[in-house]
Specification:
Layout: H1 3-7, H2 9-16, H3 26-45, H4 54-59, H5 65-80, H6 91-145, H7 151-158, H8 174-185, E1 193-198, E2 206-211
Antiparallel strand pairs: 1-2
Helix pairs in contact: 2-6, 5-6, 6-7
């Protein structure tokens, strides 16, 4: 862990705890979790028979904005000109299916907004929790440096979490990248690896690699 990050943690923690960004209370989160579980169980009750396979998901046609416009236009025209509707297509079922699609898309929209809000709150909570932990670690490290009794033992318990961390300004080597990619592929490491290639037309460009494993 770079000393610069540890030394600036207290300032970051004060900013995070300033009250400008408030975390949702636990009792409210419990209520949200309970409501979502109820909604999931209700949808699962009517969806157990689906269990779409991967090939079915590829084969079935989803509906984008253009296709939805096409469906709505067909419904509107067929309502005035029902003689062109095949006998094996039930008009009322057709309408009901469209209503189901509209409601499912509304649910999807709410879930997407919920995921965004949940992600923001999760990021804020994780940042505060990690900042608190870094402050504690920094204090223990300073206490161990001045030989405070018990600090060295605690420091040894916490140091392994930073054993393989490189300073954020250093680029990973090719060997380190290959190790991290293999770890991600095999599920033995956590994180993300981002590779950006700048100015690819000028001598193959300069590659920017961000290794967050």
């Amino acid at each position: 862990m770079a000393n610069k990050e540890l030394n600036s943690v207290e300032e970051a923690l004060k900013a995070a705890s300033s009250g400008k960004k408030s975390i949702i209370p636990n009792d409210v989160l419990n209520e949200i979790h309970s409501l979502l579980n109820s909604a999931y169980e209700l949808m699962l009750e009517y969806s157990k028979h689906l269990a779409l396979t991967s090939s079915e998901r590829i084969r079935l046609r989803g509906v984008n904005v253009r296709r939805r416009g096409f469906i709505e236009t067909v419904l509107s025209i067929a309502d005035v000109n029902p003689e062109f509707m095949p006998h094996y297509v039930n008009s009322s079922n057709f309408q009901e299916t469209m209503h189901q699609l509209e409601k499912l898309q509304l649910i999807a929209g709410v879930l997407q907004q919920l995921l965004r809000l949940n992600g923001d709150n999760e990021l804020l909570s994780s940042n505060r929790a990690y900042s608190n932990s870094l402050v504690y670690y920094n204090n223990v490290k300073e206490a161990a440096r001045t030989h405070v009794p018990g600090a060295e033992a605690i420091l040894k318990m916490l140091q392994p979490f930073f054993a393989n961390m490189r300073p954020t300004t250093n680029k990973p080597t090719e060997k380190e990248l290959l190790r991290d990619v293999k770890g991600l592929l095999h599920g033995t490491r956590e994180g993300t690896i981002v590779v950006e290639n700048e100015n690819p037309k000028v001598i193959k460009g300069e590659r920017i690699v961000v290794d967050n494993t």
